[in-house]
Structure formats: C-alpha cells, structure tokens
Amino acid sequence: MSNPPVKMRQLVDWSAALWAALIAGTIFLIINLFVVPQFMGGANHWMMLRYFGSIVLGSQVLAPPATYDGTVLIAALITHYVLSIGFTLLLAYIIHRWGLLAGIVLGGLFGLGLYSINYYTVTTLFPWFFALAGTPMAVAHAVFGALAGGIYEGLEVEEFVPVEEA
After folding, report:
1. Using an 8 Å Cβ cutoff, are 143 and 29 in contact?
2. 0.85 exceeded by pTM
3. Angstrom distances, CA of residue 137 to CA of 33, 39, 133, 158
4. Partners of 8 in the beta sheet?
C-alpha cells in the first residue's frame, strides 16, 4: 500500500523580497529624481526629494527654494526605502507561487494599483501630492512594480514545506 501524496506549500523567500525591494526601490528613486522631472515642467530632483520627505516632515518642506537640505534628504530616503520594502514584501507574498512572467506582469499591475491608491486616496492626507499625479508617475510606479516582481521571482529560492492537515 502506498502512502497518500503529501500536500506542500511554497514559502516566501523574504531575503529575495528584501533585495528586490532595494534594487527596484533604487531604480524607482532614480527615475523619480532624473526622469519624471523632465516631464513635469519646473520640477527638479531636490523638489522630488522634498515631496518624499514631506510625508514625515510636512508640507512646509516644499516651500522654495527646492535645493539641498540634509534633514529632508535623510527623511526622504528613509521614507522611500521603508515604503519600497513594505510594498515589495506585500507583492512577494502575493506572487511568490507564480513565476517570472507573472511576477513582472502582476508586479506592474500592483505598481499601477499603488499609484492609484497613492494619488487618488492618500492625497486626502497629503493633498500636495496631487500635483504629481499623471502619466510620468503612473509609469514610474508600474516600472517599480514590474521590477520588484521580476527581481523577486528571479532571485527567489523555491522552498516547500508540508501542509498540516486539520
């Protein structure tokens, strides 16, 4: 008599998710500092950093001039990477069973979902962010999600554990 098949479930590779977050987050940051401002007349990379920093420091950091400020820079980077890590961990949890192509496609859709949430609901708390809403930011968010999902799936070491029957 043979043993019944053992049900297995795949674990999330949290290390791969963290690396995906750092890599995709860095690329997203570069896009927002140097590409997006080209499509938004008058914005510069210091202004974009001030927007990121304003999440914790408040809208007063958006007052001109949009130049270097160490406190804003630190707040912006910490805020950006905390959000990138949190969103990528959530994405990894959602997609970890589906493979590279699904990671990229679903990650891109996840990024568009983040954009929609950020610019059409969270702006009730941070109304000054609505000024950034538009195609350049939507594309940047989709690229972040696609990169986060693809990089996660590319780095993931698949590990399975038996499922306990109740």
Report:
1. no
2. yes
3. 11, 10, 6, 33
4. 162
- Using one digit for the tens of pLDDT, what is the confidence trace for 14-63? 999 999 999 999 999 999 999 999 988 767 889 999 999 999 999 999 99
The overall longest dimension of the chain from CA atoms, in Å, is 78
| SS3 state of residue 126 | coil
The sign of the torsion formed by the CA atoms of 27, 31, 32, 34 equals positive
Helices (H), the chain: 14-30, 36-39, 45-57, 70-95, 100-120, 135-155
**What are residue 154's phi and psi, to 5 degrees?**
-70, -35
The dihedrals phi and psi of 60, each to the nearest 5 degrees, come to: -65, -20
**Interatomic CA distance for residues 107 and 27, integer angstroms:** 15
Determine how many CB atoms are found less than 10 A away from the CB of residue 123: 16
Residue 41, CA distances (Å) to 32, 101, 117, 132 in order = 14, 35, 24, 11
